[in-house]
Amino acid sequence: MAANPPEKNWRKETLAIHAGDLKDPVFGEVSPPIFQTSTFSFATAEAGAARFSGEEPGYVYTRMGNPTVNALETAVATLESGAWAVAASTGMAAISAVLFGLLNRGDLLVAGDCLYGPSHVVIAGELPRFGIEPLFVDASDLGPLEKALRRRPRLVFLETPTNPTMKLTDIAAASRLAKQAGALLVVDNTFATPYSQRPLKWEADLVVHSLTKALNGHSDVLGGMIVGRDPNLYKRIKRFITLTGAVMDPHQAWLILRGLRTLALRLERSQANALELARFLEAHPKVAWVRHPGLPDHPQHQLAQRQMEGFGFMLCFGVKNGLEGGRVLMNHLRLITLAVSLGGVESLIQHPASMTHAGVPRQEREQTGITDDLVRLSVGCEALADLQDDLEQALAQI
Ligand code: LCS
């Protein structure tokens, strides 16, 4: 049972709802079944051997592939304008598969200096044990990236926008520079989602996602995905995920596919809310600074307009009185929930320096802009006025 290929001219709103529909429903079911099976039977011994050798298509064993997981893979590949996608158990499993599956002893890896904390920790703390050297650069500026690429790395790994500082990288320029140097460009597109940014369109080689975030959108399930175009990279990533067992479970895939169907509706609301809240905070006397790609004073606002199809639902800001002020704010919110993670229908706030990015050494954190006063807000789909009222009453406590 394969996924139905979508029509070429369908727009992203339609693709979010229909990409990955199964081609041959058994009872005409509209929602794909959860194929809750670990293994698949063969009609004959010869047919089993032919499936193992790859001569005959078909499923064998769920760690190697499953129709419900495959439906989600097709949906995300289509939304990202990719040729293939491989699902993973979590976003970190997807990122680890790219790093450990593609890099070899003696390789150099260039990474953005601002990444989700555990991504930074894997690169700085785990890869060197395997003889892989990391080099962190401020990728919001092409100068340091170009200089680092002279050292001929195997791979460049970036987030744009970055978690949590909301800095951007010009993906088209970075991929041009990476190609000249013979390096692969990998973009973590979790903050933007394919609804608002498609790195493959700008010639990145691979996209990784934490599906735990806005693609699922309901803060109730974990998941990851790797998307690409090159069939050789597919073979290597698929092999690594299958062999190491970092695969997605069919029930998990079904839940994420269910969440994905409302991506356009959720993002239209959350992105509009985020831009309005960014403007509200910027004008507030208790707020020292705000960073959101949709604000004209974001240093890369023009790049955001060119590269993104929406400015996203994330923002960060600092209140006057620094960390103390931020703590008072976070402790007095009644609607916005104090929790890590992001991209759900509910708004979440957190303090990266003591939470998601606590594993990054202080000096490195501060150098890249993860200062102690920075609070990060993931804007959800609630009524804008209620979110604004909540921030107003909590800011008044400072
Ligand atoms: N990439 C980015 C940009 C992320 O923000 C996260 C998780 C991951 C990868 C890892 O995904 P996971 O393995 O959790 O599915 N970010 C989180 C955050 O900022 N707060 O809590 C989790």
User: What number is the mean pLDDT?
Assistant: 96
Major beta sheet, specifics?
7 strands, mixed
> Which CATH-level-2 architecture of the largest domain?
3-Layer(aba) Sandwich
Beta-strand percentage? 5-15%
Low-confidence segments, ≥5 residues, pLDDT <50? none
Radius of gyration: 21 Å
Taking the alpha carbons of the first and last residues, their distance comes to 58 Å
- Counted up, domains total 2
- The count of strands amounts to 12
The CATH first-level class of the largest domain comes to Alpha Beta
Bound molecules: ligand LCS
What is the approximate shape? globular
Sequence-ordered SSE layout with sheet pairings:
Blueprint: H1 12-18, H2 45-53, H3 67-79, E1 84-88, H4 91-102, E2 108-112, H5 117-126, E3 133-137, H6 142-149, E4 155-159, H7 171-180, E5 184-188, E6 206-210, E7 224-228, H8 231-244, H9 250-260, H10 263-282, E8 287-291, H11 301-307, E9 314-319, H12 322-332, E10 337-338, E11 348-350, H13 362-367, E12 374-378, H14 384-395
Parallel strand pairs: 2-3, 2-4, 4-5, 5-6, 10-11
Antiparallel strand pairs: 1-7, 6-7, 8-9, 9-12, 11-12
Helix pairs in contact: 1-3, 3-9, 4-5, 4-8, 6-7, 12-14
This protein binds ligand LCS.
Ligand LCS binds near residues 159, 163 and 340.
Describe the structure.
The protein is α/β, with parallel strands linked by helices. The chain folds into two domains: 12-260, Aspartate Aminotransferase, domain 2 (3-Layer(aba) Sandwich); 263-395, Aspartate Aminotransferase, domain 1 (Alpha-Beta Complex), CATH 3.90.1150. Helix content is 38%, strand content 14%. It is built from 14 helices and twelve strands. It has helices spanning 12-18, 45-53, 67-79, 91-102, 117-126, 142-149, 171-180, 231-244, 250-260, 263-282, 301-307, 322-332, 362-367, 384-395, and strands spanning 84-88, 108-112, 133-137, 155-159, 184-188, 206-210, 224-228, 287-291, 314-319, 337-338, 348-350, 374-378. The strands form two sheets. Strands 1-7-6-5-4-2-3 form a seven-stranded mixed β-sheet, sandwiched between helices. The longest helix has 20 residues, at 263-282. The protein starts with 11 loop residues before the first helix and ends with a helix. Ligand LCS binds at residues 90-92, 116, 119, 159, 163, 188, 190-191, 210, 212, 222, 224, 340-342, 356.
